[in-house]
Amino acid sequence: MSARAWAKDGLPGVFVGKSSSLLPGLLVCLAITVAALAVQAVEEHLTGHPYIEALVIAILLGIALRTFWVPGERFRAGVAFSAKQVLEVAVVLLGASISLGAIVASGPALLTGIVATVLLTIGASYGICRCLGLPARMAILVAAGNAICGNSAIAAVAPVIGADARDVTAAIAFTAVLGVLMVLGLPLFVPLVGLSEHQYGVLAGLTVYAVPQVLAATVPVGLLATQVGTLVKLVRVLMLGPVVVAFALIAPHLPVEGATSKAGPRRLGFSKLVPWFIIGFLVLAALRSLGLVPEAVVPLVTRAAGLLTVISMAALGLGVDVRVLARVGGRVTLAVTGSLALLLAVSLVLIHVLRIA
């Protein structure tokens, strides 16, 4: 068989054909990612902190581009690949940022309080969203984003429950806006409520969405607030794995959006109940906790996960018609705001119940 024939008909030919079909859409998503990272770099240079992260910027740029240009057939495979498979790899790599040792050292009372706060917020936020008429999958995305880690939680939960690009983008967009407002407004709780640095660190760790935003919200208050806030935030991030597995079990029983009746329970295999990327996430977290992931490698893996997530968010933005998003904006805004207010209230109660000084 000639090299040309083998390239056409053999395994390499299949690989080349698949890659070539993905390349146009991937290149578009990469271009948006580069632009988003450049905007974040300018923002950090001017303000010192990424108040609006590249992940959110990529979504906004993707939506803006989609408003003026609908990706044709040759771009769709690459955009779909970026939105799903690339995102799944990013979720796996996030596991390397989790260390169980530091979590256990924080003490059982605080650990229990954080877990209870996350679970209570998920349940209550879901209820708020459903009362406002949001679809079940959108309600889950908002609840997970508010309770755990904002954009990353939404992005991780979305493929497990089968949420579409419109729901994911709406949840991330409104959560991101409130995330920035939290960074700017949360320090006001120190004089208003009379919080100590330690108390404020717990509050920031329980309520602020992203780790960089926790740093931005706590550094102005003090070193202790920053250390405590980061630790509490890591515990919340650790909840992502179990929560995603739980939603994977619940997903087959969720109502079919737009249908008049609920979908009946389906018999699914283990790989469907617990997707491969969640297993990968938990394995990497366990390896990191056992010291089998070198510390020097962790920042590289974390940055790679962040980059892949930005690429996938660019793809999600490209799949959203802003006119459809605008029609659900009011209810989503109320749902996210109500959920965040609830999280703040529960966090303040926890601080006083545990008598954190």
From TrEMBL:
Pfam family, one: Cons_hypoth698
Entry keywords, A to Z: Cell membrane, Membrane, Transmembrane, Transmembrane helix
Superkingdom, taxonomy of origin: Bacteria
Subcellular location(s) of the protein: Cell membrane
Main location, first listed in the record: membrane
Coiled-coil ranges from the UniProt annotation: none
Residue ranges crossing the lipid bilayer per the database entry: 21-42, 48-65, 86-104, 110-128, 140-162, 168-190, 202-225, 231-252, 273-294, 300-320, 332-354
Membrane topology qualifier: Multi-pass membrane protein
InterPro entries xrefs: UPF0324_pro
UniProt record similarity statement: Belongs to the UPF0324 family.
Protein name: Sulfate exporter family transporter
